[in-house]
Design a protein that fits this description.
Layout (H helix, E strand, L loop, with lengths): L1 H23 L20
């Protein structure tokens, strides 16, 4: 029973954290003009 209570508490805290971060939204400010590299450059 104690493990079930601990699991429920952890799940509730994780959900609260996700909702809190989602409520803040994305940060405002200038964006970088350079895109992130998503592929590995070819090796010589």
């Amino acid at each position: 029973m104690r493990a079930l209570l601990a699991a429920a508490t952890g799940l509730a805290l994780a959900l609260l954290l996700v909702v809190g971060i989602s409520a803040l939204g994305s940060p405002t400010g200038p964006q970088s003009p350079k895109p992130l590299l998503t592929t590995v450059p070819p090796h010589p």
